[in-house]
Amino acid sequence: MSIDHSHTAFIVVDSQAGALDNPFWGTARSNPSYEANIVKLLKAFRSLQGEDGPRILHGPAGPHIVHVYHRSLNPASPLHSTSPGMSFHELSHPAAHETVFPKTTNSAFQGSDLGEYLRAKTCWKIYFAGLSVDLCLGTTVRHASDLDVGKHVDEKGETVPGQLMLIEDATAAWAKHGGKYDADTVHGVSVESLKGEFCRVVTTEDVLKELGIHEGEVLEM
Predict the structure, then answer these.
(1) pLDDT digit string (tens) for 101-155?
(2) Tens digits of residue pLDDT in 164-202
(3) Which end of the chain is more exposed for a tag (fewer CB within 10 A), N or C?
């Protein structure tokens, strides 16, 4: 039986060249599997769509894929509009039919139409990935929870909260204060601070299982 993914969204935050290929935030980063997992997830979600985006193929409609990029107001930032680093990283570049939102603050919901988009598409099962878990991604997840993003009426006619998921191995963090707080510690504490209070924490493998996809199938795509 086909799984209905029409209410599912995959949101990738700030997976940009200036974040991944520039030492602006330091050289000590957590999760060396970040890039591979983002590629794997994008392949998986895209495999459930039509060529032109979410639509019915042989069953329920596919999921929605959203990319958010940071347009820094700091001229020294590699994510400033004058820097080539503001562009999406080549590994996570949006497909032509995928939705893109810019932002200038830490939260992807602040000053953007992302919340309205998710409501219009009736998305209530939302997976978050991207950079970084202690800054923009973490802030976005917190804001989504506070805004009741995904709140909807279920099949029983009851109003229920949305399902917000942070993919812990599809994000990363950098060391702080000259290495006083190493990258893995920053990553781990940030994830644990979000877990339960603001979202459910999952892994890439968990997501593939929830989508009904075997990892071997993704590797063959």
Answers:
(1) 999 999 999 999 999 999 999 999 999 999 999 999 999 999 999 999 999 999 9
(2) 999 999 999 999 998 899 999 999 999 999 999 999 999
(3) N
Tally of CA atoms within 13 A in the half-sphere of 149 that contains its CB: 30
**Computed from CA positions of residues 105, 111, 117, 119, in that sequence, does the dihedral angle turn out positive or negative?**
positive
Helices (H) and strands (E) in the chain, counts: 7, 8
> What is d(CA 40, CA 217) in angstroms, rounded to the nearest whole number?
10
8 Å CB contact between 136 and 190: no
DSSP class of 204: H
Q: Do 131 and 19 touch, CB atoms closer than 8 A?
A: yes
Torsion 155-156-158-160 (CA) sign:
negative
Unique residue bearing structure tokens 């970084």: 132
